[in-house]
Recover the amino acids of this structure.
């Protein structure tokens, strides 16, 4: 018996999979990784108790709780990584814009003319 | 000290209506002027193109900190002895520069910060702005151990040696706090100097909003987190 949350989750996972498939270059490796991820997600969605044994080993109670903790950590890490990447890129853009503006100084003799 | 050894860096962003007046005030005092147009979309260049100034323009809007740093780099390349940062919105009085520079040279300071709170002109500072600056002041003190009476003032003078040491990276307004990190890190000799800030309807409208204070805070925190 499929519950509505399972149905909803599997639709979301398939939709995300389809989105990535349309965005990324459909190489064999990408397809393999995508199918693998969907299979893992599907297993976790339809057999949630498979994770509970591992969770019990770690002392996390339910498998869903353990997944929640780990996905939170993973997302947090990704956000920090992105922030740091954006800042680095911003610094590079600044450097390029600065170099360009110094190279292209308008009126480069202006103040010198006045001194002569 | 010859005024020709001093470059005044004027960062500007869409200030076409007041920029000419600001620049003329400086030209009348014979300073070398480096205008850094931070990606203005108005006709700033058309207004300034025939004036005897250096005109640098950013391809895109990066922020006041980035514009000032571009000006500093350019000024260092040109070999000027003294550096001044001066807002383009007509808030500052060009007459203050001379006094600040004299004070810096005579007393061998590395950097001098303008302060609107050391003069009577502080009475004209809007109330909310005053409160915000007060918070910024103690925030700056908490993280840099430098307590200035005016936390975010665009008028500063510094020497060539100091200019080489300023390594601030923040493109937006947080550079004002970052400069204090540089001062502390390099143990620079600094002081504050009374200056006038003219609050016109234009500058209040154009300047930082009270809400921007939170953005500055966020930038500084990110700056501290990501080295």
């Amino acid at each position: 018996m499929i519950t509505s949350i399972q149905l909803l989750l599997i639709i979301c996972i398939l939709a995300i999979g389809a989105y990535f498939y349309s965005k990324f270059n459909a190489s064999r490796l990408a397809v393999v990784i995508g199918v693998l991820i969907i299979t893992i997600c599907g297993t976790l969605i339809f057999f949630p108790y498979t994770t509970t044994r591992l969770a019990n080993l770690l002392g996390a109670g339910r498998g869903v709780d353990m997944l929640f903790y780990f996905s939170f950590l993973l997302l947090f890490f990704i956000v920090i990584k992105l922030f740091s990447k954006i800042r680095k890129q911003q610094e590079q853009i600044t450097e390029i814009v600065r170099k360009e503006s110094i190279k292209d100084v308008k009126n480069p003799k202006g103040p010198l003319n006045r001194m002569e | 000290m010859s005024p020709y050894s001093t470059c005044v860096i004027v960062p500007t962003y869409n200030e076409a209506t007041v920029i000419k007046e600001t620049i003329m005030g400086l030209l009348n005092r014979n300073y070398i002027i480096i205008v850094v147009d931070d990606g203005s979309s108005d006709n700033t260049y058309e207004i300034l193109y025939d004036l005897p100034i250096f005109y640098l323009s950013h391809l895109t809007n990066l922020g006041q900190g980035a514009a000032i740093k571009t000006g500093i780099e350019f000024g260092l390349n040109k070999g000027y002895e003294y550096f001044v940062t001066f807002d383009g919105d007509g808030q500052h009085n060009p007459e203050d520069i001379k006094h600040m520079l004299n004070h810096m040279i005579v007393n061998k300071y590395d950097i001098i910060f303008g302060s609107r709170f050391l003069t009577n002109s502080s009475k004209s500072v809007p109330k909310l702005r005053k409160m915000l600056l007060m918070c910024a002041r103690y925030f700056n003190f908490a993280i840099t151990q430098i307590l200035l009476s005016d936390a975010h003032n665009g008028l500063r003078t510094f020497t060539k040696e100091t200019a080489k040491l300023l390594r601030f990276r923040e493109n937006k307004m947080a550079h004002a706090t970052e400069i204090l990190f540089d001062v502390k890190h390099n143990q620079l000799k600094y002081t504050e100097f009374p200056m006038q800030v003219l609050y016109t309807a234009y500058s209040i409208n154009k300047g930082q909003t009270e809400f921007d204070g939170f953005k500055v805070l966020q930038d500084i925190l990110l700056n501290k987190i990501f080295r």
Remarks:
- The longest helix of chain A spans residues 63-103.
- Chain A has a mean pLDDT of 87.
